[in-house]
Amino acid sequence: MITLTSDFGSPYPAAMKGVVLRRSDARLVDVTHRLPRGDVRAAAFWLRFVLPEFPSAVHLAVIDPGVGTERDALAIRAGEHALVGPDNGVLLPAARELVGESTLAAFRIEVEDPESATFHGRDVFAPAAADVHEAGVENLSSIDYLYPATDAVDFRFPRPQIEGDRARGEVLVVDDFGNVITNVPGDFLDGAERVRVNDERIPVGETFAAVSEGAPLVTVGSHGNVECDVNDGRGDEAFGLAPGDEVRLVVDR
Amino acid sequence: MITLTSDFGSPYPAAMKGVVLRRSDARLVDVTHRLPRGDVRAAAFWLRFVLPEFPSAVHLAVIDPGVGTERDALAIRAGEHALVGPDNGVLLPAARELVGESTLAAFRIEVEDPESATFHGRDVFAPAAADVHEAGVENLSSIDYLYPATDAVDFRFPRPQIEGDRARGEVLVVDDFGNVITNVPGDFLDGAERVRVNDERIPVGETFAAVSEGAPLVTVGSHGNVECDVNDGRGDEAFGLAPGDEVRLVVDR
Amino acid sequence: MITLTSDFGSPYPAAMKGVVLRRSDARLVDVTHRLPRGDVRAAAFWLRFVLPEFPSAVHLAVIDPGVGTERDALAIRAGEHALVGPDNGVLLPAARELVGESTLAAFRIEVEDPESATFHGRDVFAPAAADVHEAGVENLSSIDYLYPATDAVDFRFPRPQIEGDRARGEVLVVDDFGNVITNVPGDFLDGAERVRVNDERIPVGETFAAVSEGAPLVTVGSHGNVECDVNDGRGDEAFGLAPGDEVRLVVDR
Questions:
Q1: Which of A200, A183, A187, A202 has the alpha carbon at shortest distance from A243?
Q2: Contact B55 C122 (CB under 8 A)
Q3: CA distance B8 to A222
Q4: A208, B67: Cβ pair inside 8 Å?
Q5: What are phi and psi of A37, to 5 degrees?
Q6: B118–A3: do the CB atoms touch at under 8 Å?
Q7: What phi and psi, each to the nearest 5 degrees, are found at residue C10?
Q8: Quick check: C30 and A37 CB within 8 A?
Q9: CB contact under 8 A, C14 and B30
Q10: Which of A2, A116, B109, C135 is the most exposed place for a label (fewest CB within 10 A)?
């Protein structure tokens, strides 16, 4: 199984699929091709969220604002999974989440003179993902154009500051529904019925239906983090929050 | 085969796919994940339109504005098909359309304490769809967390009032092209060359090309209902119509 | 393998998939269903770009502004591939690109009285694609409703006028990123460091990162043509260019 993730929209992902299918009979599963353009942090977040749901697979993930520059290309073994994509940090958070007790092994993909300078998804990453799949995740070192990588670019999500009933966090991503997903872990809200979000008092609810339609709420999302949402509406608009914004939360007892 | 339908956009559907694939080797086919948010009627319409085209399959359909509330979760056997989704009526019109001579059998999905309160697509419905697929549609009662459901929420599309050459109907959905799909059956137009739509005289055409580019027409869509369209344009804008609006049609002889 | 391409958005493509799957176990691969509506030239461009990446397959492509009119329906054998779609030129450029040394063979699909006049994707093309797949690409003439077609509508992209350092070309398509793809072949830029685009001096770069964020550049895209782009921005907006517009390029030595 090979999963595919990118920020390519349409129809470029199909070229990657064609390239893979010329080299492999693997089942292909689209994760999404509508990630925010060139947003390494959002891509790292969503890959970490989605990939652990999958059985062992090769995960091709191309969010690559530096395409054609000197940035490396990576294949990472993470337990029974492998991840293939640019060396810009996008793969590491998901790889760590997948790996459990195992250790990560990172390899640099060395492709001489790819056909294009702007579509390494097609010319570098898709062929590598297919080859990794065919060789088997445990045999990455048998692929002759893979070399051990010791200095892969890492990415860490910003950590919130939490003291008792107060948290200072950050918006990581806004999802398609407009839900504002922060980096504050959900247990911060344990037992709270109301929380101040940047000084506005908002009810805490377990589900959207805890408040009336169009009303704001704070909840714990399916990723385990604190979210600022609106029932049947867009949290980003109601709270005036965007990725990267600071969020101050104070539990209102 | 398992089909997947939701209003989740991207990338949440991928989490459902991962969950299914950990439990089943079934072929997965996306119907769409871009249904109008939380719109049970539109979802019921499109499922009824699309699912009968498929060979026997398990159809996972999550349009679930009440997620996390007391609403039940359902698995329905409809002939050789099964439908899995929330108990809000979204499944019933398609199930009836699929079932032919057979009778429907509805089961309540009882899952204790799902991991999240807001993503039952991942935590309740996807595992159930995979389990139904693995057990086989004819063996729903062998799944230990399914219980016969006797009071599933039904949904019926509003019926138009038709008297001779006059119909009073309603807009059911607007499709991606902007075509305005009403609940008036196509045979209402039999033999008509013009029809008044809310008092405006519009030509009836069999194809878009029956009128010049940018011009409005009334036609019978591929679902068999009367549509208000524009050739190479958006019917919803030209006619000023949205889902739920009343449509008065008078055949103009 | 059957690939699917259309301008249908959602959820109409699912009806085509259902129809195919009732007739065939073929692997289905979506190319895209978000091509610009009714734009034969854009569809011809993207099909020519994407399909050659695939191993041998049946390619179902429905961009069909003339649906329901007298236009024919086609199945074309192109080497080990087959293409199925409307006879409006959309298939020919890709077919020629695929065919290598072989010759094309075109067949007219004759279906009496399809169920709808507006959804031949479901009622004509999808069944034909499945039947072609089941019969095998080499056996098109064994399908009883296919007849040799001698006058298929062709489509040729406009050719640029190039004299030395000057080119007069045209915008063929704008992609999802806003990149403006012209019909001028990339080798026109060989060795150039700057080019005037409709009298504005623009740097030539091999990658987006050749210029600062938000700055315009001219590059050679992954299809081999000259593109007018913006690093981390939209070229169509910065250059004020849309499909069909004239582009005058002068290499600035």
A1: A183
A2: no
A3: 13
A4: yes
A5: -55, 120
A6: no
A7: -135, 145
A8: no
A9: yes
A10: C135
Which of B13, B17, B65 is opposite residue A232, by nearest beta carbon? B65
CB < 8 Å to A11, chain C = 5, 31-32, 34-35, 46, 49-50
The owner of tokens 């369209």 is B229
pLDDT tens digit string along C210-242? 999 999 999 999 999 999 999 999 999 999 999
Evaluate whether C83 touches C152 at the Cβ level (below 8 Å): no
> Which residues of chain B have a CB within 8 Å of the CB of C66?
209
Asked if A29 and A56 count as a contact pair (C-beta separation under 8 A), the reply is no
Q: Tell whether A175 is within 8 A of chain B (Cβ).
A: yes
| Closest to B157 measured CA to CA, from B123, B135, B181, B138 | B181
Note whether C207 contacts A69, CB cutoff 8 Å. Answer: yes
- Per-residue tokens: B93: 């019109």
Does residue C234 sit at the A interface (CB-CB below 8 Å)? no
Per-residue pLDDT tens, chain B, 253 aa: give them: 999 999 999 999 999 999 999 999 999 999 999 999 999 999 999 999 999 999 999 999 999 998 888 899 999 999 999 999 999 999 999 999 999 767 899 999 999 889 988 899 999 999 999 999 999 999 999 999 999 999 999 999 999 999 999 999 999 999 999 999 999 999 999 999 999 999 999 999 998 889 999 999 999 999 999 999 999 999 999 999 999 999 999 998 7
Please tell me the distance in Å from B120's CA to the nearest CA on chain C.
23
Does this model's pTM top 0.95?
A: yes
Where does residue C147 rank: exposed (0-12), middle (13-18), buried (19+ CB within 10 A)? middle
- Helix A12-23 to helix C40-50 angle (10° resolution) is 30
CA dist., res. B212 & res. B140, Å (int): 53
Answer whether B208 touches C (CB < 8 Å). yes
CB A167 within 8 A of CB A160: yes
